[in-house]
């Protein structure tokens, strides 16, 4: 859309209404104006409907109960719109004031609070955080002899601090203090936050680091974290529908959406409570997060009324390591630079991306955990809709060639897209479709006998059969990102009708015991045999699903040694698929085993 399109639409709408209400003289000139403005109003209104229709179609495709968004254009909120309902019952609509959990987008807003303290000489970016921590200290060890944990390192995920993220606490559960969380003591459900590599030597995402930062901010200000953030960040930015209060007070709790897991089941109690507020505890709206993004854009440009100065904001948007600034991730080159963050809490996903100096941006929040590319598709659609540069330009729909069904079926299966991130291909009607959370996600069209191209992105997959004709991997080519890499195969889709003999039935009871310990977590997991150290560490808080494990029926075993698959810091040599009898019917479980038969991970799948 042209930059003035929305303004033209508003003018047209106002003029049309005035003429229809007989507030202007219906002269020949006004009649011509009426026709012209009516045309503009219809054109742009239809164009707006195209956007809304696309979003609704994506929600329907993915089974998303509710979605809320805000679009920034020319440094202002151009569009704030809500879709769907606060829960899957479909009775109460989402509004633009409905509160969603921001997940890790909380980190970006909290980072602004920490940088505010730097500007007011309460904190130093490169000082050892233990200097000002009072109620808790980062335990020193062999990794901190020469390099110390600093605020800069925490903000850019380079400190070596552990604990990637937090599952939160069910409503009604005991809530630990921040110190208990940092030490991993009851009732905390995550391991202790510790340094396990030399600070500054590499990048690794750490929600634990931001929880250290939360305690640091409390210690230097003497204020409770939600009040400090409200007084110094949220209120000054006009984020009146945002709070870090955990749990929410009753008057705010009634304004919230309800969280849904990736299978679209409800989060018990509607949401989880996050005492790890800086890392994951912000309740907010897309419009409020858009105001946050606009404040960064204004500060970067040197405009007044921002929480941070221009120089501090430019530090915030400077790459520290791995395209990570101070509290935000960076994309694009010097002319198309964008900042942002994704977020996930139990039952909620969020996305924020905004240009540094073009006054553009998008915030999307949904009341579901969705592992698909849906939010990315919506971002790309909006960018194309408003003719923003710096985003992928979609190629023409690829022309399909015929592929015989036997060849197509051989490409079906699961592949390890990234560490602990599976992509599943299902064949249907001369196409391959990716399946995420039991829903269709992305369509791939055959353009050669073993090459398929996405209809959504400029991405192709090329399957690579070995000397025996078996597919053990595919090559992923991304034209927009300019790279290609090999994606190893995990195994076929599960099929309960295909019976196979278990090559080692004696191990099934051991695997069952290991899985039951992973479900329980805690001391039971700690004392269990048959698990890797990484699995014991990362499942210390237990697994949400399945709640019960009654029996395992062998389906398939895949030797994946040498394919480069690693889970919880252990190499995977074999993946065994079982049909699972539990509280979740018709479910399969993929068990990842090391070369010595230890369980290092598992995945629940539906086919």
Automatic annotation (TrEMBL):
Transmembrane segments: none annotated. Residues 51-371 form the Beta-lactamase-related domain. It comes from the Bacteria. Pfam families: Beta-lactamase (PF00144). This is CubicO group peptidase (Beta-lactamase class C family). The lineage of its organism: Bacteria, Pseudomonadati, Bacteroidota, Cytophagia, Cytophagales.
């Amino acid at each position: 859309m042209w930059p003035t399109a929305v303004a033209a639409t508003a003018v047209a709408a106002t003029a049309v209404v005035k003429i229809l209400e007989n507030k202007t003289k219906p002269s020949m000139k006004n009649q011509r104006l009426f026709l012209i403005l009516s045309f503009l109003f219809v054109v742009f209104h239809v164009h707006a409907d195209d956007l809304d229709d696309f979003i609704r179609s994506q929600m329907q495709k993915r089974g998303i109960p509710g979605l809320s968004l805000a679009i920034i254009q020319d440094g202002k909120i151009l569009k704030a719109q809500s879709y769907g309902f606060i829960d899957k019952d479909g009775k109460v609509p989402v509004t633009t004031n409905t509160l969603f959990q921001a997940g890790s987008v909380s980190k970006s807003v909290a980072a602004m609070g920490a940088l505010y303290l730097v500007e007011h000489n309460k904190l130093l970016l490169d000082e050892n955080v233990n200097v000002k921590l009072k109620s808790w200290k980062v335990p020193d060890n062999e990794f901190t002899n020469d390099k110390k944990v600093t605020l800069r390192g925490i903000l850019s995920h380079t400190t070596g601090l552990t604990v990637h993220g937090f599952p939160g606490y069910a409503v009604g559960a005991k809530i630990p203090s921040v110190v208990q969380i940092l030490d991993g003591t009851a009732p905390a459900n995550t391991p202790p936050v510790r340094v396990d590599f030399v600070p500054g030597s590499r990048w690794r995402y750490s929600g634990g680091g931001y929880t250290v930062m939360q305690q640091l901010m409390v210690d230097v200000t003497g204020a409770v974290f939600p009040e400090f953030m409200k007084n110094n960040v949220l209120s000054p930015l006009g984020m009146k529908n945002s709070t870090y209060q955990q749990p929410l007070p009753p008057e705010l709790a009634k304004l919230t959406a309800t969280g849904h897991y990736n299978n679209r089941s409800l989060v018990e109690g509607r949401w989880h409570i996050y005492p790890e507020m800086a890392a994951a505890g912000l309740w907010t709206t897309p419009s409020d997060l858009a105001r946050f993004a606009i404040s960064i854009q204004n500060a970067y440009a040197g405009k007044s009324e921002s929480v941070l100065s221009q120089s501090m904001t430019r530090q915030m948007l400077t790459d520290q390591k791995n395209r990570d600034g101070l509290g935000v991730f960076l994309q694009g080159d010097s002319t198309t630079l964008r900042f942002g963050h994704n977020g996930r809490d139990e039952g909620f996903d969020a996305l924020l991306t905004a240009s540094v100096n073009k006054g553009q941006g998008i915030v999307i929040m949904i009341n579901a955990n969705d592992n698909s590319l849906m939010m990315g598709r919506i971002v790309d659609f909006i960018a194309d809709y408003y003719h923003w540069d710096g985003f992928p330009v979609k190629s023409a729909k690829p022309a399909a060639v015929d592929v015989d069904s036997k060849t197509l079926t051989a490409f079906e299966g699961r592949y390890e897209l990234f560490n602990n991130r599976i992509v599943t291909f299902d064949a249907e009607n001369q196409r391959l479709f990716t399946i995420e959370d039991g829903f269709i996600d992305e369509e791939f069209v055959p353009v050669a006998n073993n090459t398929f191209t996405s209809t959504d992105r400029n991405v192709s997959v090329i399957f690579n059969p070995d000397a025996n004709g078996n597919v053990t991997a595919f090559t992923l080519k991304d034209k927009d990102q300019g790279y290609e890499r090999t994606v190893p195969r995990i195994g076929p889709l599960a099929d309960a009708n295909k019976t196979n003999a278990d090559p080692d039935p004696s191990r099934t009871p051991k695997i069952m015991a290991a899985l039951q310990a992973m479900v329980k977590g805690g001391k039971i997991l700690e004392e269990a045999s048959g698990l890797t150290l990484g699995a014991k560490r990362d499942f210390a808080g237990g697994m949400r699903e399945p709640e019960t494990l009654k029996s395992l029926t062998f389906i398939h075993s895949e030797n994946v040694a040498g394919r480069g698959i690693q889970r919880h810091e252990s190499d995977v040599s074999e993946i065994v698929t079982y049909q699972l009898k539990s509280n979740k019917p018709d479910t399969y479980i993929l068990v990842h085993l090391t070369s010595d038969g230890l369980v290092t991970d598992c995945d629940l799948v539906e086919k």
